[in-house]
Amino acid sequence: MKIISLTFSLLLLVSNALAQKDLSIAQAQGETNISPFTGQSARLTGVVTARIRTGFFLQTPDDKADSNKNSSEGMFVFTRTEPPAEAEVGSIVSVTGTVEEFRRDNEPFALTITELSMRKDRDELKVISKSTPLPKPVVLIPTDLMSNAVDNLEKYEGMRVQIDEMTVSGPTGGRFDIKNFSSVSDGAFFGVLKPVPRPFREPGRDVREFVSAADKDQFKIDFPKAALFDANPEVVRIDCNEQLVAAPGQNIVGHAQNRCDVPAMADVKNLVGVLHYSSGKYTLFSDSDNKATVTTSAKANPLPIPPARQFVVVGMNLENFFDDKDDPAIKEDVATPEAFARRLQKVSFAIRDFMQSPDVIGIVEAENLAALKRLAAKINADSVAAGKPDPKYEAFVIEGNDGRGIDNGFLVKTTRIKVLETKQLGKDDKYKNPNTKDDNFVNDRPPLLLRASIDDSKSGTPFEFTVVANHLKSYLGYNDAKLQDNVRLKKKLQAEFLAKLVQARQTANPKERIILLGDFNSYQFSDGILDVIGTIKGKPAGKAEVLNPSEDLVNPDLIDLVDVIAAGQRYSYVFDGNAQALDHIIISETLRKHTTGFGYARINADYPETYRNDPNRFERFSDHDPAIAFFTMDDMTAGQKP
Q1: How far apart are CA 456 and CA 463, in angstroms?
Q2: Which of 553, 535, 398, 558 is nearest to 469 (CA)?
Q3: Closest C-alpha to 54, from 258, 281, 276
């Protein structure tokens, strides 16, 4: 048996050797996203243009490139670990391996990367020459990215490219360390080529959800009025840290540290690097000697102080607001005392100096009442120390069902606002999980209701209003085949719960002034699967528009204030370079005549993650921008003609 096994192995090696093809890089890439030689052994020759942790990039020298503009002249060679020293930038090498199409398991909607997979025990790399000039980068132009196709840059995959000028659409990200209230840059941001406008998440189903064109066509047949979101293929991701760098006369010594910590709407010029596909986007890995220039005028300007008869209501996501006390009931991140003190200082600064101490702040992601009380005390003390009146904020939190222990709460300025009632809603409501058949809570973070009033010396009658703070289910698992049925059902049930809640209150008291606020984790329009906000407002998308429709449960309809501001301001969060509204303030018709303004405090979403490290600036205390609504006790329609 050993002789037979050895003979078979030898035959397999001979077979593989005979099957190996000498291909040009363009041939191996082909004219589409999928290589015509997938699964086959090949030998490629080219100049090494860049190195990363798991491989290197190979490109045909300019004088050897073919005339086919639809096939890339670059290829990623996957080595699994740091590439061999022979694969030095500027060396022309020949390398053998297997042509493969790679996609990460956790990125089901990403395109595949055409790569040459090289194994040390099987394949070889030979150096033909050194110190070769790198191929001239292809200059990307807006029309390259405006083809309305998710694979619009496939023809340049693996090649050196250049962006002359771009506008940042998504700031540099990073890793947020809750325990130390600090962040480390990941060196990656998103942008569009000038003069392409800032990209927004648009209505409809993401086209990347469809496995084939036939699936997409069938969806449009089944849901003829449904919109399709093109996933904004004009967005390019820039990664300044991915390439490995070398010291003179040495091999690789580490990663580039050109971290490119840039805010949204900054102008960036002269970016050069290799084009890869990473994190679901075409990504330019900028050269280690990055000479790009950044111009920005980004500055968070404080809000105006409202007039005496106005009051201000805010919805604010504090993003994992965990304190420095260990709660044995949950497995939370416990901050150090120094870190939590810095966090309190930063949030206090933002509330006092930027938002001018709003009257009611609906809080999302507070760990507990004790943590929020410490924030209230910090704001009060800082106000007095700065020579301002003491707002006498009081904190309200009621524990919910969330596994991480984050809850909804309120900060109320008691010098102006009288608290009439606080009440948690729907904590015990359950439904049957369609995957596990277990009984799950409908509301992980149950809505928290506040009834309040403000003295009105003009009328002599207190002006009463009701605020409900919300934090609905996120999109995590929304398109995961194993989780999506439950995630979609939970989001639908949460929307219907709120719609029924509002309708019951409107029926009981048609004059009640109701404000819903918080992180609804849903856009202001249908996403083709659900219409969460439409359901809550009383204007749900119909059966021809969404996969899982809801009935109309609200009358009179509510008003989402996101809909009444300028289109370019309809966002509270930035994801993969796309601006989108997840945080809303939704009001009852009874408040229309008392509403004077709405907007977002631009202090978080547009700023790089590393700004979190500075407690003396209010930018980036969270990843969401606070939603702010301005109301007046006066009737704005009084005296107007009907």
Answers
A1: 6
A2: 398
A3: 276
Specify the DSSP element, H or E, that contains 13: helix 2-19
Return the SS3 of 178.
coil
d(Cα 558, Cα 536) in Å, to the nearest integer? 8
DSSP 84-122: PTTS-TT-EEEEEEEEEEE--TT-TTSPPEEEEE--TTT
pLDDT given at position 298: 64
Is residue 167 a contact partner of residue 175, using CB atoms and an 8 Å limit?
no
Give the C-alpha separation, 303 to 292, whole Å.
33
> What is the predicted pLDDT for the residue at 146?
76
Which residues are bridge partners to 412 per DSSP?
360, 394
Average confidence (pLDDT) over 271-282: 94
Domain covering 138-199+234-295: architecture? Beta Barrel (2.40)
CATH number given to 2-129: 2.40.50.140
How far apart are alpha carbons 24 and 75 in whole angstroms? 10
Strand intervals (E) in 460-513: 463-471
Q: Which CATH number fits domain 312-632: 3.60.10.10, 3.40.50.1820, 3.10.20.30, 3.40.50.720?
A: 3.60.10.10
- Note the pLDDT tens digit of each residue in 232-260: 999 999 999 999 875 433 333 334 445 68
Dist CA 123 CA 100 (whole Å): 15
Is the pLDDT at 497 greater than 70? The verdict is yes
Sheet with 514-519, side-by-side order of all strands: 417-424, 448-454, 463-471, 514-519, 583-587, 559-560
Residue 586 host element (H or E): strand 583-587
pLDDT at 256: 43
Q: At what angle do helices 369-385 and 337-349 cross, to 10 degrees?
A: 60
Q: Give the residue among 254, 257, 250, 237 at the shortest CA–CA distance from 52.
A: 254
Count other Cβ atoms within 10 Å, centred on residue 217: 11
441-450 pLDDT per residue, tens: 999 999 999 9
d(CA 198, CA 190): 11
**Helix count (H) and strand count (E) of the chain?**
8, 36
Domain boundaries along the sequence of the chain: 2-129, 138-199+234-295, 312-632
Q: Dump pLDDT digits (tens) for 359-379.
A: 999 999 999 999 999 999 999
Contact between 304 and 628 (Cβ < 8 Å) = no
pLDDT at 4: 35
Phi-psi sector, 518: left (phi>0), alpha (psi -120 to 50), beta: left
Q: What distances in angstroms separate CA 491 from CA 108, 368, 432, 497, 588, one per listed residue?
A: 21, 24, 13, 10, 22
Contact call for residues 581 and 570 (beta carbons, < 8 A): yes
- The reply to whether 138-199+234-295 shares the fold of 2-129 is yes
Residues 619, 361: Cα–Cα separation, whole Å: 18
What count of Cα atoms within 13 Å lies in the side-chain half-sphere of residue 88? 19
Please give the share of the chain, as a percent, with pLDDT higher than 90: 82
Nearest-angstrom CA–CA distance, 598 and 583: 12
Higher-scoring residue by pLDDT: 181, 12: 181
| Dihedral angle of Cα 527, 532, 536, 541, to the nearest 10 degrees | 40
Q: For residue 88, give Cα distances in angstroms to 93, 96, 288.
A: 9, 16, 14
